[in-house]
Amino acid sequence: xxxxxxxxxxxxxxxxxxxxxxxxxxxxxxxxxxxxxxxxxxxxxxxxxxxxxxxxxxxxxxxxxxxxxxxxxxxxxxxxxxxxxxxxxxxxxxxxxxxxxxxxxxxxxxxxxxxxxxxxxxxxxxxxxxxxxxxxxxxxxxxxxxxxxxxxxxxxxxxxxxxxxxxxxxxxxxxxxxxxxxxxxxxxxxxxxxxxxxxxxxxxxxxxxxxxxxxxxxxxxxxxxxxxxxxxxxxxxxxxxxxxxxxxxxxxxxxxxxxxxxxxxxxxxxxxxxxxxx
Length: 278
Fold this sequence. Notes:
The chain is α/β, with parallel strands linked by helices. The protein has helices spanning 19-30, 51-67, 91-100, 115-120, 144-147, 184-204, 231-242, 245-252, 255-260, 267-276, and strands spanning 10-15, 34-41, 79-84, 104-108, 125-129, 136-138, 155-160, 170-175, 222-224. The chain is built from ten helices and nine strands. The strands form two sheets. The protein has a seven-stranded mixed β-sheet, sandwiched between helices. It has a two-stranded parallel sheet with strand order 6-9. The radius of gyration is 18 Å and the shape is globular.
């Protein structure tokens, strides 16, 4: 049995409570980091109603259970607090975080943190965005590329957290891999699984990384909110899949295809980060 390498770095994760979010904590703990958590109690609400939306999220939950079943073997998190969305920017939550004295604060699926968080943990607070900023910002940003038939724009971004929404300077971005037989959920969940090991490597070698690169916020950008996740959007996404969107993407995939799917100016960031992690 391979032993974990023990790192001295302390990580505070501020996260939602879906399986994918719990999996990040388990993964970093299993990698040897000292992990503390602030868990946000929240309820996801969308404009998608009825069996289509239910089936979509049930399918996602099943895929995540398949990919993250190792969670049952993970060690317990020793330092843990739960706050509501309304409480996370209050003095009690920030005091709890300061007492931990983390080397890094990582946000994953949590509400917008106010300037007090940003100033208290300046240069130590990193945000995980499941989407490629600045091209897809906001909510559901690895779903809407399927609506727009831009599968090449599915990915994730690790950025410095600032006071904007998915606007911080970028440390690392990664495209999703796509294979025949994939679904929206297998593509997204496999991306998240690979993201965990990327983040562990980045945190380990953080001091030797080059400075984060500011986003070009004047570039073409799409910003989605929860209200945009409708039955109509779901229908269009699944119609695109039935019409062979994945097969067509795989048939024509190469670096130029990826770059032409709205990723022009940030492509150098993606290439550099992937090179550093090899």
